[in-house]
Amino acid sequence: xxxxxxxxVGIDAARLGGWIAATxxxxxxxxxxxxxxxGQSNPTYLVTRGRDRYVLRRKPSxxxxxxxxxxxxxxxxxxxxxxxxxxxxxxxALCEDDSVIGTAFYLMxxxxxxxxxxxxxxxxxxxxxxxxxxxxxxVIAALHAVDPGAVGLTDYGRRGEYIVRQVTRWSRQYQAxxxxxxxxxxxxxxxxxxxxxxxxxxxxxHGDYRLDNVIFHPSExxxxxxxxxELSTLxxxxxxxxxxxxxxxxxxxxxxxxAGHDLGMLGIPTEAEHVAAYCRRTARPxxxxxxxxxxxxxxxxxxxxxxxGIMARALSGTAAGSEALEMGRRARPLxxxxxxxxxxxxx
Length: 347
Known about the structure:
With 347 residues, the protein is an alpha+beta fold. The protein folds into 2 domains: 13-109, Phosphorylase Kinase, domain 1; 126-346, Aminoglycoside phosphotransferase (APH), C-terminal lobe (Aminoglycoside 3'-phosphotransferase, Chain: A, domain 2). The chain is 40% helix and 12% strand. The chain contains 11 helices and 9 strands. The protein has a 5-stranded antiparallel beta sheet with strand order 1-2-3-5-4, sandwiched between helices. A two-stranded antiparallel ribbon has the order 6-9. It has a two-stranded antiparallel sheet with strand order 7-8. The protein is globular and about 65 Å long.
């Protein structure tokens, strides 16, 4: 470790400060780097230079699964969505030179606000909870209304057969990071490709849109920025929206979920009410039960594959967060929940 490397962070602060000065201008002032909570996949840091504050997102170190941790894609989509109805942080610069901090990274503005982790929103009154969930609904509907061509993202992903390609991708990534046998995952890998809904659409999808990936205004039920665009691409909007709606199906002990809560008392809409609001906003006549349940099972499978990747990195010592091992253990219950969805659908 060099004398200027921040303890426990692994970033040479002096070298980073020089790069910031050369790229954004100003004097090569000393910088401070602090690791932020979250960012299991791509480590996230607060960088302070004088009065300026930035957020840095970088690839993790060590051997990586191919196509994962694409910070360049995060940077590109946020730059493209600036000025749209989708709130994003302003991005400043992308660095793909590994010699600066050891991996590719980008800098974006620091957005002052609330990042909330518990979907039951403790400490928030019932009326405010309802408005916050309505705002979550509004923003994902706004994202799916964006024309990819109008914002320069025509080539941001392949068009058509999104689910087929996603099942193939996450099956491969699960196998590449497999640390134990999970029977439900093997069953899903066999079943999902054979039952893909016929309906096909292509829009910009976030891929990980949930409560803790947005920043709310400090005192208003208004989203200031959507975070963590690593999994974004061109894909099926209903698959993206179903991922967001998994929170209603998952218990808090499995992943951050709402299952088991008294939603009426909390002032939080039901899953059906949230889906209906999205359909109104996107002028969609409705979603068939069969398709919706498939998208739910697919997303639980996908999240289980992601958790398995975190487990593999935890066991290899390259995980980005201290809670990685605990998150990795959630792969099995998520896969089993997904398979129970399939069994209900089949019956």
